[in-house]
Amino acid sequence: MDLVTTKEMFKKAYEGHYAIGAFNVDDVDIMQGVLDGVVRAKSPVIIAISEGALKFMRPSYVIAAAKAAAKDNDIPIALHLDHGKDMELVKQCVDLGFTSVMIDASAYDFEENVRITKEIVDYAHAKGVVVESELGAISGIEDNVNVDDKYGQFTHPDDVVEFVTRTGIDSLAIAIGTAHGAYKFKPGQEPKLRFDILEEIQEKLPGFPLVLHGASSVPKDRLDIFNEYGGKMAQAVGIPEEMLKKASQMAVCKINVGTDIRVCYFGEIRKQLQLKPEKFDGRSFLEPARKAVADMVEKRVTDVFLSAGKA
Question: Residues 267-283, buried b or exposed e (16+ Cβ, 10 A)?
């Protein structure tokens, strides 16, 4: 099948009280691992490409790989530009064949965010592409996303209806306490998401799909492997899966995962490099890493994102 937009995905997810995983990939091998996992879970998926990953992988290769994946797998696959800050790059991705783009103008004031977002919405909708935007600021640092305030600025529910109405966006990333990167909370600190804000937004805009960024849970088993074989991420603390599950049962239809993919993939590569010092064939290291990603993605999708519904 062809690449699809997230429109139908989100409609079904909202009505079924589950969420779609948006997995950030940095190369084709990781993309294949993600796809192997969601195919086993029988779930739709959003392949998310950051500006940095797009530059690294090269746009034409990204498009070719995503189209091949859609053709080879019998599940709905959307190709999404994550955190597009450059308006011209966002438009370029629309023209290239991305089926979903995010325009992130959250660093600007409300009016400028509306203006920039509306321009991208008009451009993308004319070509059948859906648009995500962000209101408030997700804290943390990850791939060109830098917010000084550790806890970010929570999205104000009163602003959401006006923003969505004036821009015509298809989904909205909100700030309720998640954070980009691996170090979301201090060790011993109790993770907390503002479900009261999420509930109020849901009440003000029923049926509208919301998005959680910075939602990696940093699973301990994968973090332990990463550190055991030479990594240094001992203080990494993510979002508990039970909180992600609760959000997916509300109005959150898309949950972004990036850090978990990287920790899983490169932790397994570190392990394989040490266990197989005589090997110099890249497949000896990359195949187990790809499988580790697939296993983690399948488990996250099955146990958390789809736990309350059926895709």
Answer: bbbbbbeeeeeeeeeee
> Is 260 a known active-site residue?
no
Which of these is catalytic: 2, 27, 72, 82? Answer: 82
For residue 109, CA distances in Å to 154, 159, 179, 185 come to: 14, 12, 20, 27
- Phi/psi of residue 223, each to 5°? -65, -40
User: pLDDT for 282-300, tens place per residue?
Assistant: 999 999 999 999 999 999 9
DSSP 8-state symbol, 185: S
Residues 227-250, mean pLDDT to the nearest whole number: 90
**Per-residue confidence at 137, pLDDT binned at 50, 70, 90?**
low
Length of the chain: 311
Q: Residues 6 or more apart from 142 whose CB is under 8 A from it?
A: 180, 181, 214, 258, 259
Query: Percent of the chain at pLDDT above 70?
Result: 91
Residue 5 confidence (pLDDT)? 98
* CA gap 172, 211 in Å, rounded: 6
Q: pTM for the full model?
A: 0.92
Q: How far apart are CA 74 and CA 240, in angstroms?
A: 31
Distance of alpha carbon 236 from its chain centroid, rounded? 19
